[in-house]
């Protein structure tokens, strides 16, 4: 399912997918395209960067659905450390 909020926010800033990708330190626009088309979700750290660049709330952009692997790794480390 397309992420219409992310697309609208990017277009509101007059940015192309490629321009936004470069601002995030990505080599090409493929990651941004995948996030917008619903093929993948960004890691939490990138989602925060996107929210800052696009000046939108992260919840608005992603409905609090970001890539789980980073969150799961962080919580697993906490459990191991306890």
Key descriptive features of the protein:
DNA-binding; 82 residues; Helix-turn-helix transcriptional regulator; Lambda_DNA-bd_dom_sf; Cro/C1-type_HTH; disordered C terminus; globular; mainly alpha
Compile the SSE list and pairings.
Elements lengths: L3 H9 L4 H7 L6 H8 L6 H11 L3 H5 L5 H14 L1
Helix pairs in contact: 2-3
Describe it for me?
This protein is an all-alpha fold. Helix content is 66%, strand content 0%. It is built from 6 helices and no strands. The chain has helices at 4-12, 17-23, 30-37, 44-54, 58-62, 68-81. The chain is globular and about 25 Å long. The N and C termini lie far apart (39 Å). Mean pLDDT is 82; it is low at 69-82. InterPro entries: Cro/C1-type_HTH, Lambda_DNA-bd_dom_sf.
